[in-house]
Amino acid sequence: MFAAYAARIDRDQPLNGLELGERPEPEVRSGWTTVTVRAASLNHHDLWSLRGVGLPEERLPMILGCDAAGIDEDGNEVVLHSVIGQTGHGVGPDEPRSILTERYQGTFAERVTVPRWNVLPKPKELSFEEAACLPTAWLTAYRMLFTNAGVRPGDSVLVQGAGGGVATAAIALGKAAGLRVFATSRDEEKRKRAVELGAVEAFEPGARLPRRVDAVIETVGAATWSHSIKSLRPGGTLVISGATSGDRPAHAELTRIFFLELKVVGSTMGSKDELEDLLSFCAATGVRPVIDDVLPLDRAREGFERMASGELFGKIVLTTS
């Protein structure tokens, strides 16, 4: 079957390790099921995999891709939860949880196999392309906002780095949930898009906000860390799920954190129950993932190049037909 996969690890030039071509059919395992992929979306996790983060060389070649929507063996339209072993279903009792492509072949292929527990019904209101955007970036944003930040309708939120998958998801979900959303971006066009998406206002990074916010959604890391801390009201919460600009800020702002009793919460992915809630939320409210472009699987390299350059707003989706 045709697939996009990591053939080599290159920490400095990750796309040098990306190859497209034929790979073996998915391995049959007890308690697992094979899904025919209709759409799969790219995540920065795929670039990190090509750099060898979470993917050692002895597991190569590895088909990339965490997210997918498709057709199960019984002909049902489904969405995949990409955290394997979260409850022990389908793996050994002592195996730690992992994300697809860390231990098991991923979704950038015509077919993928996952534990049966990891398969959820796709709401009829969502297309395959839309549903394929939800299990990683959108689920991460959902958990950051509603589980770890604990915001409620009427609260204010700052989303750093508008344009990325998690950031655009947080803006759209926040708007739909009745939050007052502010956003930042270095790019003027992305700031305009953020406002169109639902942000009340969008600013250049580091700009003073009209008011201090209840929560900050942080995925940028070192470049925006100080601004994120300074933008919080006393007792506010910063939720971080990534550090694309690095994980060592020049100023940790420890004095401000303890003096204002701020909370800093790490967040990774989300649970199957949260994905089910997210699917229902999107179906009921009409909020839909922001899709930058849809490409056939054989043009996956173009999608990777655009994601690596940062020249996108929302998700890039790969389709198999």
Percent range of helical residues: 25-40%
User: What is the global morphology?
Assistant: globular
Mind summarizing the main beta sheet?
7 strands, mixed
Structural class: alpha/beta
| Number of extended strands | 18
Strand content: 25-35%
Low-confidence stretches: none
Calculate Rg over CA atoms: 19 Å
Mean pLDDT level: 94
- Gap between N and C termini, in Å? 13 Å
Query: How many distinct helices?
Result: 9
**What is the H/E string?**
EEEHEEEEEEEHHEHEHEEHEHEHEHE
Specify the oligomeric state.
Answer: single chain
List keywords for this structure.
about 325 residues; alpha/beta; 6-stranded parallel beta sheet; about 25% strand; globular
What's the helix and strand layout?
Elements: E1 2-6, E2 18-22, E3 32-41, H1 44-50, E4 62-63, E5 69-71, E6 77-80, E7 83-84, E8 98-99, E9 111-115, E10 119-121, H2 128-131, H3 134-148, E11 156-159, H4 165-176, E12 180-184, H5 188-197, E13 201-203, E14 213-218, H6 225-230, E15 232-240, H7 254-259, E16 263-266, H8 272-285, E17 291-296, H9 300-309, E18 315-319
Helix pairs in contact: 3-4, 3-8
